[in-house]
Structure formats: structure tokens, C-alpha cells
Please model this.
Amino acid sequence: MGIVLNRPSAAPVAEAVPPLEELVGDDEPVFAGGPVEPAAVVILAEFDDPDAAAMLVFGDLGFLRADADPSVLESTARRFRVFAGYSGWGAGQIEAELALASWIVEPPELEDVFTDDPEHLWNAVLRRKGGQFALIATMPPDPSVN
Model:
């Protein structure tokens, strides 16, 4: 399972999922997490209590439990990001794609998930990776206008 981190939608959490507004604030958008189950709500959180996570992704970042009690969420986690849908692969598919070097792999950082500038996240991660990837980060979205 994967989550696309850099695609904020035009829909604010307050309108799309009103019960979650208090967790993320007034202007926070729902992010398009991927094409699988686009109507499903997936929440990533930075947990104070990692045992409260459904599953940890890395460090104290994890998925919010579907049965989480909203009245105690603010005492178990510090930050939340709401996604509609997720990405997925069939058995062995992601391993095969990684073996073919179809993906650019870089260890995640917590601020990648909660960035205030999601539109530039891809470029920031490429710059952090360095080398030839830092050069790719400077390319315009449409290289024909270069």
C-alpha cells in the first residue's frame, strides 16, 4: 500500500469529512492518496502513542485506526493528514518494479508527509537525494519549454 503525498485536492476536509475538521484545521485539503478506493478515507498521523496506530509506517508516523475514538485522538497524535484513496500493487508487482529500477527510492522524512508545499515535494525529495536526481529536480514540468 502506498499514499501519494503531493496531490492536494480542491476539497477542504471541513466540507468533505466534517468530523475530521478539528484534527487538521480549517483550510487543510483532502489529499488524493491514489486511485484505489478513492472514496475511502485514509489518515496518516504523527503519534505520541505509537500503540494507538493501526500500523506504523516509519518512526512515529502511522495509519489511524478506523475505529479510533475521535474524543481521544488529539491526546494520541500530534498531526494528521487526510487522504482519499491509496495506491496498491498486486502480489510481487512492487518488488518486480523495484528490481527493474522503475522507481526512484529515497528514505522518507516526516516533513515529507506534512509539508506545507506539496506541489514542490517531488523536487525537494530529488534535491535531497542529490547527484543526477538534484539535476532532474531543476527541470521544468514540460521540458519542451526549457
Q: What stands out?
A: The beta strands are 8-12, 29-32, 36-47, 53-58, 61-64, 77-86. Residues 27 and 83 are 14 Å apart (CA to CA). The chain has seven helices and six strands.
